Structures are given as structure tokens and as C-alpha cells.
Amino acid sequence: MRVHVTEHIHESAMKTLREHVDVVTWEDASVRDLSKADGVIVRAAVVDRAMMENASHLKVIGKHGVGVDAIDVAAARELGKTVVFTPQANMEGVAELAVAFMLGVSRQIPYGHARLQAGAVPKIAPKELTGVELKDKTLGLVGLGRIGRRIGEICRNGFGMNLVGYDPFMPDDAFAKLGIGKAATVEELLPQADYVNISVPLTPETTRLINAARLALCKKTAILVNTARGGIVEEAALCAALQNGTIRGAASDVFADEPIRPENPLLALPNFVAMPHVGASTEESLVRMGTTVVDDVLRVLRGEAPLYPVTG
Predict the structure, then answer these.
(1) Is 113 a catalytic residue?
(2) Contact yes or no for 293/86 (Cβ under 8 A)
(3) Whole-angstrom distance, CA of residue 58 vs CA of residue 240
(4) Strands 39-42 and 2-5
(5) pTM, full prediction
């Protein structure tokens, strides 16, 4: 059996994989040629219909992570290729980054640090670096999958925040069970929220979900956080909203074009914080994701049912 690994995964997972199959890694120029591959493991790399049609031996596509928007899942289903992913493995890493973003923007930590580096803080506790607290604020959760729920749990238990959520796929009784107020629409959620967290997959329905019209519904004191996918938040509209005071601040780990270019006007704003798609990049998350995807790929290659198939 032969498995291609298009991007780096944790060494411990690679060791397990090599014990069972021949491995072609990202260092090999032929790694994107799947014509002789029985399996492939990807992080951000695209696996499209043409690649699958040219891969008669390919049985399984393993996604190291959650979002499968770079994989043509419909084509895989049609062609008899199993797609597996790691829906639980990166939950904690992404959730903790989202909370770190909330704190970083609320207390202007990156901006304050940059001011100190520039020698532009002549006295302690300058007024312009006055922040806000999370305690007793309302967190609006757009998307209540595993990551969204974990972010809510941290914020409620750790900071005493109130939770309101929007998720058209969650049953009504689940909101009450989780102690989360239900918003029937994004438009209903946004005016209530002091913080807005985005945790939905990128689909045709969620593309530009947060746009100029919806940003205008937010409180002027609101802080927006996106650790899901670029393209869900319309970047030009967000930039304008931050510049004109429509919202207080924002942070994002994801962008429509990645990595974000240094000339992107968002990066020049003192009330915006960016990271280069590192939500799942913790030692612990990388071990869990690598182990989970390798185990499921090997299951499929042995003719066993995977634990985490993509069924949608």
C-alpha cells in the first residue's frame, strides 16, 4: 500500500504510518500525482475531481483537520473514494485561540506591544490603551458545532459571559439544554452581542455571511473573531467597519487569500489582530490530528469502517 502525505504532519503520526505502508511525502515532487496512491493525507492541499479520476487505486482521502472545502467530496462519493477527517482533534486549540483573540483585542495587547517597541509610550497606563472586560458581556456564537460550543463553555465558565447562538442545524431543545439563547437569524443575533464568534464551515450559504449590511447591525462596541475560514467574512467590509467605528475591533486567523499579504489594509489597523491560520497549530492538536487521520486512513486501507467519515 502507498500513501501520499502532501504537507507536514506530526512526527509520531508519520512514524505510525511508515510502519504500515510506503509513504511519499511533501518533499517528493511526485506527491501530487495520485495515480499510484492507495491513500492521500492533506492539510490545505486541494484534491479535485480530475486528481481522483486519474487515481484508480485511490481508496481514501484523509483530511488533517476539520474543513473539507478543498476536497471535492461529491466527486469522491461518486467515484467510490472514502473521505475521512478529524472533527474532534483540533477543537481545543482553535477554541483557545478564539478566546485569546477576544482578550488580545479587548486589551489591545498587540497594539500596546507595538507602541512600546516604537518607543511611543512615555508613561504607564496611557488612556488610549484602556481596554474592556469580558465578564458579564454577551457572546454571540455563529455556529454551534464542537468548536463553537467549546468557545462558549470557556467564556461562560471562565468569564461569566452570557451566550446567544445561531445555528439552523441545531434542534430547538438543544439550545436550552446547553444554556444558550437562540437567535433565529444572524440578523437577530448581531445586535445582542458584545463579541461575535464565527465557527461555521465555508459553503455557498456561508460565503460573505458577515458583510457590510450585517456589520451595520452590530453594536459599536462589538468585537468580531473568525477562526473558521476566510471568505465567510467580507474583508473589505470588515476593514471599512473597523476604520469608521461601526465595530470596536476584530481578529482573524483565516483569510480569503492565504497567507495574508502584508499590503492587506487590515494589517495596518490598530484595532485588528491577525494570525496565519494557526488555530490548530498546538503540539497537542497536531498530535491528535495526525494520529486520528493516520488511524482512519489505515482502517480504510485494511477494509474496515473509518471512525470519522465525511458524510455530508
Answers:
(1) no
(2) yes
(3) 46
(4) parallel
(5) 0.89
Burial label for 80, CB within 10 Å (0-12, 13-18, 19+), is exposed
Residues 43, 277, 288, 299: which is the catalytic one? 277
Q: How far is residue 33's CA from residue 58's CA, in Å, rounded to a whole number?
A: 11
Q: Let me know if 2 is a catalytic residue.
A: no
Rounded CA-CA distance 92/95 in Å is: 5
Give the mean pLDDT of 10-19: 98
Residue of 4, 10, 229, 299 with catalytic role: 229
| Per-position b or e across 92-118, b if 16+ CB within 10 A of its CB | bbbbbbbbbbbebbbbbebbbeebeee
DSSP of 93-131, one letter per residue? HHHHHHHHHHHHHHTTHHHHHHHHHTT---SSS-GGG--
In three-state secondary structure terms, 187 is helix
Give the model confidence (pLDDT) of 153-204 as tens digits: 999 999 999 999 999 999 999 999 999 999 999 999 999 999 999 999 999 9
Q: What are phi and psi for residue 143, nearest 5 degrees?
A: 105, 125
Q: Which entry of 11, 53, 187, 258 is annotated as an active-site residue? A: 258
Cα separation, 89 vs 289, whole angstroms: 5
The reply to whether 229 belongs to the active site is: yes
Other CB atoms within a 10 A radius of the CB of residue 56 amount to 10
